[in-house]
Amino acid sequence: MNMPREQVNRLKIVLAEEQKSNKWLAEQLGKDQATISKWVTNSSQPDLKNLLRIAKTLNVDVARLLNADVLNEDQQVNLQSATSDNMVLSENKEE
After folding, report:
1. Partners of 9 in the beta sheet?
2. Fewer beta carbons below 10 Å: N end or C end of the chain?
3. How confident is the model at residue 89 (pLDDT cuts 50, 70, 90)?
4. Which of 41, 17, 47, 13 has its CA nearest to residue 29?
């Protein structure tokens, strides 16, 4: 998926707002700090599965992690669909 060079995610901002560090997130997700650093600096992007895990870990809505202005219409629809599907799966697991 080709993303514009503009900031796609707002992970750095949300981490600061939640007073969490890259190291903390890396530990929570079982990822290398270098991976988190790449996501925070927008040199690479987390896939949808990791984006959903980040949102859950930070207890925030996925939309808060994204700069939707730089996503095209198809990407926004795919994200909404995947987020809805994941919510249904999560709800079913809790039952």
Report:
1. 66
2. C
3. very low
4. 47
Query: What's the length of the chain?
Result: 95
Structure tokens at 11: 């992970």
When comparing pLDDT for 23 and 63, which is higher?
A: 23
Q: What is the pLDDT of residues 37-87, one digit of tens each?
A: 999 998 998 998 999 999 999 999 888 888 756 555 555 555 556 555 554
